[in-house]
Structures are given as C-alpha cells and as structure tokens.
C-alpha cells in the first residue's frame, strides 16, 4: 500500500497528482496547499476522474499537513515559478522561505518519507530540504535530470525523425544553464548519436536542452512547464516505490563520486524505498568532467548565496 503526498497544488502539483492516480502508482495520493478550497476542489476533480476509469486510487486534498502522515514519498512542488525575464536562480530566497515552512511540517507529520524536491532553483532547494529535515541525505533527491534528459531525447528524436524511445541519453549537472547533455554517450537505436549528426547540430540541440524550460516559460508568458514535469516526477517516484534496476538521473548527494563532494547535483542513480541506493558513475572524458565540475561550481555558489541570505 503506497502513499504519495504532494506539497503544492499548482499546475505542477495537481498535474502530478493526476498522473500518479491515472497510472495507479499509489493507493493514496494527497495534495496539500495553503489554499484549502482550490486544493480540495482539484483533488475532488482528480478523484472523480479515477471514478471514470474505475481506478482503485484514493485522492484527497486540503490545507492540513496531518493528511500526509505515513507517506512513503513526499513530493515538494510548492514555490514561486519564474517569469519570462527570470532565471531559475532568481526565485532563490523567496522559495527558501517557502521550503522552511514545508519542511517544518513534513518533519512533524511524515518524517520517514523519501523527499522529492521539484522547487527551483532545484539543486539548492534540494540541499536546503536535506539540511532542514536532518534526514539521511540519501532520502532526499531533486527531480531535474529526468526532465532535462526527456527534453534532450525529444529534441534528438525530432531532428532524426524517430521515436524518443529509440534514443538513450542522459543529462547531468545542475538544473540550469550549465547542465551537461552527454551527446558522446548517447545512442539512437543502438548507434552512436555522434555518428548521426554533425558536431554543430549536436551543440545546438544541447543548447536548446539547457534552455528547454525557458522556451516554455516564454511561450506561455505566465507560468512554467508542468505536463512534462509531472511525467518526470512520476518516473522518479516510480523508481523509488518499485526499486527500479534502471538508473534515473536525479539531483543526489555526492560524497566523492565524479570527484565531487558535499553538494547535490544531477547524476544517474539507482533509487529505492530508502532513497538513493547507489550513485552510478559514468566514464566521462576530461571535457565532460570539467563541464560537470563547472556546473557543480554554479550550484555551490547558489548554496553559498542561500546560506548568506538566510543568515547562516
């Protein structure tokens, strides 16, 4: 009997609840938001959708954190989304205040849950959630690499006119402009991607991947991506609950892996009911490792700004 709670019933949170319910990943899905009535309304709407399909999933929502008790996984989407003229980093301090309140309540009502952080700036917020919760850092992950990887695979598949399922690829690093799409290690239907496309086209796809979220923000004008985000959250939660044998890219605590230590950063991991079972180290070349370290440096800078802003 699996229970997943989602903190934040905005577009991302409510769509995630819908996806989890429709895919029958959990027996119970709980939405929590400070706006009680809209949250209850969205939960009821999703519950009625389960009735249409005859799904054995209980969905409920509201402002009471007590409802998340005994959750196996708590997904944190609460936060202020960036605007078209902003980067993810611009929401740092305001979302840190929201995270303070969220984690205080999660500690009280669901202290054993694995935490999946979605709030931006992702890697810094994942670090903050781990610090505030005081749990084993392996029980806290950030959902970013899964989404970034999905975007990378889509852009490659569109260029080569194949199904995204034919593309095997990964994006590492922080969830920002210095993320590291690994074109050299990517394959398309078993063949190396670097044999399929010239270098300049690969660089263009990598750059579009880095700004994949901003592209959607600019098109929407008010808000950010939520359908693909919810699907990526589903993939992470599924890997946790079902202890998948396939590595999933998440922001995870590094303690020497990839020659990095003391930060959360996007890397492939084996996940399970206790969080990160293993960080998978890929055979990166010097250029890729340097790019990953540059991305790590930007994350460390954000964490330092966060500590300063919070008076740490």
Q: What can you tell me about this protein's structure?
A:
With 312 residues, this protein is an alpha/beta fold. The protein has two domains: 3-142, 3-Layer(aba) Sandwich (Rossmann fold), CATH 3.40.50; 145-309, Alpha-Beta Complex (L-2-Hydroxyisocaproate Dehydrogenase, Chain A, domain 2), CATH 3.90.110.10. It is 44% helix and 20% strand. A six-stranded parallel β-sheet has the order 3-2-1-4-5-6. It has a three-stranded antiparallel β-sheet with strand order 7-10-11, with helices on one face. The termini are far apart. The mean pLDDT is 95.
> Can you count the helices?
9
Overall CATH class of the largest domain: Alpha Beta
Number of domains: 2
Mean of pLDDT: 95
Beta percentage is 15-25%
Q: Within the largest sheet, what's the order of strands?
A: 3-2-1-4-5-6
Provide the helix percentage. Answer: 40-55%
Give the uncertain stretches in residue-range form: none
Task: State the fourth-level CATH superfamily of the largest domain.
Answer: Lactate dehydrogenase/glycoside hydrolase, family 4, C-terminal
Helix-strand makeup class: alpha/beta
Main β-sheet, in a few words?
Answer: 6 strands, parallel
The count of DSSP E runs of length 2 or more, i.e. the number of strands, is 14
Distance between the termini: 40 Å
What is the annotated CATH architecture of the largest domain? Alpha-Beta Complex
Please write the string of helix (H) and strand (E) elements: EHEHEEHEHEHEEEEEHHHEEEH
Radius of gyration: 19 Å
Net shape? globular
Using the coordinates shown, work out and report the CATH topology of the largest domain.
Answer: L-2-Hydroxyisocaproate Dehydrogenase, Chain A, domain 2
């Amino acid at each position: 009997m699996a229970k997943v709670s989602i903190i934040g019933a905005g577009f991302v949170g409510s769509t995630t609840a819908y996806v989890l319910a429709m895919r029958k990943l959990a027996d119970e899905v709980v939405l929590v938001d400070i706006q009680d009535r809209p949250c209850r309304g969205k939960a009821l709407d999703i519950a009625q959708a389960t009735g249409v399909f005859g799904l054995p999933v209980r969905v409920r929502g509201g402002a009471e954190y007590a409802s998340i008790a005994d959750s196996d996984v708590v997904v944190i989407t609460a936060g202020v989304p960036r605007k078209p003229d902003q980067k993810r980093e611009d929401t740092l301090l305001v979302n840190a205040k929201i995270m303070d309140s969220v984690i205080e309540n999660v500690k009280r009502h669901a202290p054993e849950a694995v935490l999946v952080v979605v709030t931006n700036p992702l890697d810094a917020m994942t670090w903050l959630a781990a610090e505030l919760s005081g749990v084993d850092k392996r029980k806290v992950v950030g959902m970013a690499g899964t989404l970034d990887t999905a975007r990378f695979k889509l852009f490659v598949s569109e260029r080569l006119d194949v199904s995204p399922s034919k593309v095997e690829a990964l994006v590492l690093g922080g969830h920002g402009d210095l993320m590291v799409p690994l074109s050299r290690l990517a394959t398309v239907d078993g063949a190396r991607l670097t044999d399929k496309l010239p270098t300049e086209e690969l660089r263009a796809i990598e750059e579009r991947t880095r700004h994949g979220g901003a592209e959607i923000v600019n098109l929407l004008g008010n808000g950010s991506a939520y359908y693909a985000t919810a699907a990526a959250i589903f993939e992470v939660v599924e890997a946790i609950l079902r202890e998948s044998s396939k590595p999933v890219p998440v922001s995870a605590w590094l303690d020497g892996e990839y020659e990095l230590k003391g930060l959360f950063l996007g890397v492939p991991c084996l996940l399970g009911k206790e969080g990160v079972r293993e960080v998978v180290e890929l055979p990166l070349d010097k250029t890729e490792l340097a790019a990953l370290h540059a991305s790590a440096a930007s994350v460390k800078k954000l964490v330092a700004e966060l500590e300063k802003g919070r008076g740490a």
